[in-house]
Amino acid sequence: MFNIEQNSTTMNNKQATISNPPAMWENPRFRNWVAVARACHLVQQELARKLKPLDLKTPHLDILVNLTRTPGISQQDLARKLFVGRSNMTMLLPQLEKRGLVERRPDAGDRRVLRLYLTSGGAALADKAIAVQAKIIDDMMAATTPEECEMVGDSMRRIVARLLEMQSGAEAVEGE
After folding, report:
1. Under a CB-based contact definition with an 8 Å cutoff, are residues 75 and 89 in contact?
2. Does the pTM exceed 0.85?
């Protein structure tokens, strides 16, 4: 995956030295999307830094959060929900199991399916990590009014829906 912060900074530096910037920088959709991408990247950096004392990485947090919200989710459904391949999930889960945070249990109706659950230690660590994440989000969003916060959320939900539509369309074309 490319480093959006590095690319954004490189693009911004080039823009500053060009007397006639490319038209894309005049387009508010492009300019604002770069701001969103930079904010996402910086939040990920801050989250990684704040999770370090808990000996937790952001992909692990994603798993813990989802198992908090959906105990008993299958490994395959969790991978799909997190937009990662099953191979990534197969690599991450043993790390959490080894630490005694997650356990896999066979599905009662289908022995091929494994259901995922937090252990008591996993639930306790998830609570701490979620509090860290919530604090970062609260601090970051304090720069907005409640109305602006709602507008950001509404916009992002519409963008996510649009991207999912685009993916579905692309998958349909690829499957033909």
Report:
1. yes
2. no
pLDDT in tens, 3-46: 444 555 555 555 555 566 678 878 888 989 999 999 999 999 99
Q: What ranges do the domains of the chain cover?
A: 1-54, 57-166
Rounded CA gap, 30 and 151, in Å?
Answer: 18
Intervals of the chain under pLDDT 70:
1-21, 175-176
CATH number, domain 57-166, options 1.10.3720.10, 1.10.10.10, 2.60.120.260, 3.60.20.10: 1.10.10.10
- Return the DSSP state at 21: -
Give one DSSP letter per residue of 78-123, joined into a string.
HHHHTT--HHHHHHHHHHHHHTTSEEEEE-SS-TT-EEEEE-HHHH
57 Cβ neighbours under 8 A, 6+ residues apart: 48, 51
Give every CB contact of residue 163 below 8 A, 6+ residues apart in sequence. Answer: none
